[in-house]
Amino acid sequence: GLAFRFVDPDASASAGAIAELIRAEYTSAEAMAAARDCDVVTFEFENVPVAAARELARNVMFLPPPEALEVAQDRLLEKTCFVELGIETPRFEAVASPEELDRALERIGTPAVLKARRQGYDGKGQSAIDAPARSRQAWERAGSSAAEHGFIVEQLVAFERELSIIAVRGRNGETRTYPLIENHHAGGILSFSVTPAPRLTAELQSVAADYAARLLARFDYVGVLTLELFDVGGRLLANEFAPRVHNSGHLTIEGAETSQFENHLRAILGFPLGSTRVPRPAGMLNLIGTMPERARLLEVDGAHLYDYGKAPRAGRKLGHVTLCRDTTDAVLHELESSKRALDE
Known about the structure:
Elements: E1 5-8, E2 20-23, H1 29-36, E3 40-41, H2 50-57, E4 61-62, H3 66-72, H4 75-84, E5 92-95, H5 98-108, E6 112-116, E7 126-129, H6 135-142, H7 144-147, E8 151-155, E9 161-169, E10 175-177, E11 181-186, E12 189-195, H8 202-218, E13 223-232, E14 235-242, H9 252-255, H10 260-269, E15 282-288, H11 294-298, E16 304-307, E17 317-324, H12 328-343
Parallel strand pairs: 1-2, 3-4
Antiparallel strand pairs: 5-8, 6-7, 6-8, 9-10, 9-11, 9-13, 11-12, 12-15, 13-14, 15-17, 16-17
Helix pairs in contact: 2-3
């Protein structure tokens, strides 16, 4: 019973297959006019210009709030926010020159990673430093394009695994969280995910949910928010947060009683939130670079295929497959087997 309008600079944006798509730059007068016509405006891409979000928020209900978007776009603001909220995160410092990088490494130590403050995702804008003598090489690899906004240098954590927690908060402050998700990456890009995370304890879930709740309260947030975490021997360190529905949460479509997408809509529209319970372990496999034959994917028992309709390109997420099994081990086995078959 909901009507949608999408704005995207790309005329081939996937959303155009299901509803009205207006091709326009986010800051254009056309985009502003199209959005002002709506009852509520939201986003699912954290590189939407903050200026456009703030302008719209003055004239129409805009959720999640622009401040969350602004902080998530800048790694320094994001890490500083974690520290202010008492959320553990790897040691970091802001650096604006090779000399500042050298001094920061003296305090942080190596290995470390140099990260562009803005525009970095899927491993982009990052350069590892395994010894102080390699700092200049890392700076040069980072590139001059990112230098305009500066960098942070961050302690490279020897984590056991990467996790994410997806939380949703309604207009009335009601909050729910999904079980922790374990994520496996390849080349800096999410390859596959499983939930509930293997070896999940009540303590891990509680700490992650508490961290997410602090972020939601900090921004008076409405909608879905995802917090990415490093598990270091049972200690959770925050890596970054995404003020939107998240790739690792696509498995909630079949895996949870209410998907992250439906709960995001429920939240921003003021509806009661749906259950985030996961009745059976669920997994998701990203389809990256090239799209396999549809029949090959669907011959897997219980597989659900999502094809985004995007042109193939190295490193591009073109779709995903989700499935559920009776045990987490069975989900992992199926995902790993499918990935190996697709890589052959």
